Amino acid sequence: MLYALLGIVAAFCAYIQWGDEIPLPQIDKDQNKKEAKYIHNVQKREEKEKYERAKLERNPTGYMTLEEYELLSVPKDRMTEEIPVPKFPTPADMIYVPQPSYKIVRYNNPPGSPEISLTKTFYKKRQQNAQGIVSPDFTKLVYPSVYYYPNSGSTACDLFVINLEEAKSNMDKILTASTIHRLSDPILSTDKKNDNYYTFRTLTPVDFSTDGTKLLAKEKIGNSKDGIWKTTPIVYDFTTGLSYELIEVRDAIAYYWKENKALDLDDKRWDVYPLGFAADNPDWVVVNAFAFTDDKPVNLGIWMVNSKGEQSRLVTFRQSEVPVSMNGYKLVKAGVVSPSISEKEQKQLKRIEKENAKQKEKQEKQELKELENSYKAKIKEMNAEFKESQKDYNLRRRIQGSTSGDEILIKYKEIKAEQEAKKQQKLEKQREKELKRLEKQRQKEEKANANKEN
Predict the structure, then answer these.
(1) Could you give the CA distance from residue 3 to residue 81 in angstroms, rounded to a whole number?
(2) How many CB atoms lie within 10 A of CB 299?
(3) In sequence order, which residues have a C-beta less than 8 Å from that of residue 271 and are 6 or more positions away?
C-alpha cells in the first residue's frame, strides 16, 4: 500500500514539473492513438471539403450559406456600375447585320422645335423615357420620363439628370449613359394627380444656357380629347437647385393685347412656344406667342422674359430678327456602318474571342492546379505534423516506462536535442548537395558558352 501511494505522489510531481510541455496520458495508449488518428482524419476531410468548395466557387452554382447570401445581398452603388457601349447582336445564321452609325447634333435646332414623341408601346408599358439633351460641356444629360395612368387615361412627367462619365469621348459618354446612373430625385416634376380624365402633363427640355448652368423646359398641360390648354416656360438653375415658372410672360402678353389691341385673349385659344435663350443675353428667354383663330395661327409677337420671370417685354413680330442660341446636344442616327468595315470588325472580334477563350482555359487550368497543389501541400504538412506528434507521444511513453521523477523531463529533453541535431545535420547535407549541383550546372553552362564563342 505504501509503494502504491509513493507511485501516485511521484506521478503527480512529474505532472507538475512537466506542465503543458509533456502531459501524461490518462487513458490507454491504443485508445489515445485512435482518438488522435480520428481527429487527424477529420481535419483532413475538412481540408478536402474546402478544396472541393473552392473549385465549385470558381463557377457559382447558386448554392451558398446564409452568410454568403447576406454578403452578396448588400446593396451596391448603382452610380459606379460600368455600362458598355450598346451593340446590336448578330444572329449566328447571318453574315452581315447593318450596324447604325451615330452623330452628335444640336438639340434645339431649329429653336423651339424639341417635342416629346410617344411610341405605340407607351400605353402598354405605361412609362417612356423620351429624348434627352446633353449639356454644352458634356457633363450631364437631362431626359423626361413620362408616366401613363390607365385608370384615368392621364399622364405625368419627371425630368431626371444623368451625370456622364469622364475620361471618355463625347460619343461614348452619350452612348453609355444609363438610367441606373441617374440622380434619384427629379429636378422638375408635373402634378401627379390623375383625377381628371384624359389630362396630360409633360415636361420637354428646350435648351441649356451657354454656360450650361441653366436649363429651359416647357410644361404642357392639355387634354387628349381637347388639345393643349397651356404651355409654361420653366428655367431650372443647377447652381442653386431652384426652378422658376415664367408665368409672368403670359400675363404680360394678355395685358398688352387687351390694352393696345382691345383683344381679350381669355376668350381665345392661344399659347406660347419657348424658343431658347437669347444669343446676345443668356439671362433672357425668348418666347413666341400664337393665337389659334380659324385655320391659320396669328402671331402674337416675339417676347423676352428674364430667366427668373421678373421682367417681360415685346421685342418684335418677326422671329428672324431675334437670334436664339443653340447650346445643347443630342445623338441621332447618321446611317449604317459600311459592310466591309463590319466584316473586318467581325473577323477581328472572332480572333479576339478565340484568343480570350484560350487564355481563359489556360487560366482555369492554372487556377485548378494551384488549388490542387495548395491542398496537397496542406495535407502533406498535416501528415508530417501528425507523424511527428505520434513519434513524440511514443517517446514520452517509452521514457515514462523506464525512468521516474525529474529524470523523465531531463531524458526527454536530451533525446529531443539529439533528434534536432540529426535533423539539422541532414538538412545541412542536403543544402551542400544542392550547392554542389548548382555549381556543377554553372560550370557546365560556362563551358558551353565558351565553346559557342570559340
Answers:
(1) 81
(2) 13
(3) 228, 230, 231, 289, 290, 292
Task: From 391, 359, 316, 403, select the one nearest 17 (Cα to Cα).
Answer: 403
Given a cut of 90, is residue 9 above it in pLDDT? Answer: no
Retrieve residue 278's grid coordinates.
437669347
- Cell, residue 107: 438639340
How far, in Å, CA of 9 to CA of 16, rounded? 11
Beta strands in 34-178 (DSSP E): 100-106, 127-129, 133-134, 140-149, 154-163
On the question of a cis peptide bond just before residue 110, with omega within 30 degrees of 0, the verdict is yes
Question: pLDDT tens, 78-98?
Answer: 777 777 777 666 655 556 677
State the Cα torsion 298-303-309-312 to the nearest 10°. -110
Using CA atoms of 136, 139, 143, 145 in order, give the dihedral in degrees to the nearest 10: -170
| Cβ 312 vs Cβ 305: under 8 Å | yes
In residues, how long is the chain? 454
- The pLDDT tens digits for 236-285 are 999 999 999 999 999 999 999 999 888 888 888 899 999 999 998 889 99
In angstroms, what CA-CA distances link 12 with 16, 75, 395, 401, 417? 6, 61, 20, 15, 25
Q: Please say whether the beta carbons of 168 and 176 come within 8 A.
A: yes
Torsion of Cα atoms, 40 then 44 then 46 then 47, to 10°: 140
Grid cell for residue 334: 447618321
Collapsing DSSP to helix, strand or coil, 304 comes out as strand
> What is the domain partition of the chain in residue ranges?
87-96+338-387, 100-336, 401-454
The SS3 assignment for 100 reads strand
User: CA–CA distance from 162 to each of 173, 208, 244, 357, 387 (Å)?
Assistant: 11, 15, 21, 35, 65
The angle subtended at Cα 182 by Cα 180 and Cα 186, nearest 5°, is: 135
Cell 463625347, residue?
170
Contact 142, 132 (CB under 8 A): yes
- For residues 242 and 239, what is the distance between their CA atoms, to the nearest angstrom? 8
Question: Per the structure block, which three cell numbers stand in for 377?
Answer: 501541400
Distance CA 191, CA 206 (A): 20
**Strand 296-306 and strand 188-189: pairing?**
unpaired
